[in-house]
Amino acid sequence: MTYDNNNIFAKILRGEVPCKEVYRDDHVLAFNDINPLAPTHILVIPTGKYVSIDDFGKNASPAEIKAFYAAIDKIVEDKGLKTKGFRCIANTGPNGGQEVPHFHMHILGGCPIGPMVSTAL
Ligand code: 5GP
């Protein structure tokens, strides 16, 4: 899938759309989700142009990948989520329910997050 420079997270990265920033470094930006589904709901995105988790894993540099997971570690530590736990979700593609085509990890915490999926087989 080709990267869409007009997706909402690209606009946030360019400063064209505001966000409530939680963390930033050269490779990573994290901000509060505009429609929180838990007391803590943070989106972590690479500053590079990656559509999905598989695009990121395949094409990002080791420095970008390390920075991404280090940022998640710092955020969950800073937000006090480590003791009781949290959930990370990377929705991917249509079946995964991905709405924004810029790779992002949801961090959800602050309460029990509930069942892993809503589908019933
Ligand atoms: P997805 O469904 O792609 O995994 O998640 C996209 C997330 O982006 C949703 O949880 C949605 O609430 C969030 N979102 C969409 N537009 C904006 C925005 O303009 N600002 C922020 N902070 N979050 C957004």
Overview of the structural elements:
With 121 residues, this protein is α+β, with helices and mostly antiparallel strands. Helices cover 28% and strands 21% of the residues. It has four helices and five strands; from the N terminus they run αβββααβαβ. The chain has a five-stranded antiparallel β-sheet with strand order 1-2-3-5-4, with helices on one face. The longest helix is centred in the middle third of the chain and has 17 residues, at 62-78. Residues 8, 17, 19, 31-35, 43, 91, 97-100 line the site of guanosine-5'-monophosphate.
- Poorly predicted runs: none
**Beta strands, count:** 5
> How many alpha or pi helices?
4
- Radius of gyration, CA atoms, in whole angstroms: 14 Å
Proportion in β-strands: 15-25%
What general outline do the C-alpha atoms trace? globular
Helix content estimate: 25-40%
User: Distance N terminus to C terminus?
Assistant: 29 Å
Q: Can you summarize the main beta sheet?
A: 5 strands, antiparallel
**Oligomeric category:** single chain
For the biggest β-sheet, the strand order reads 1-2-3-5-4
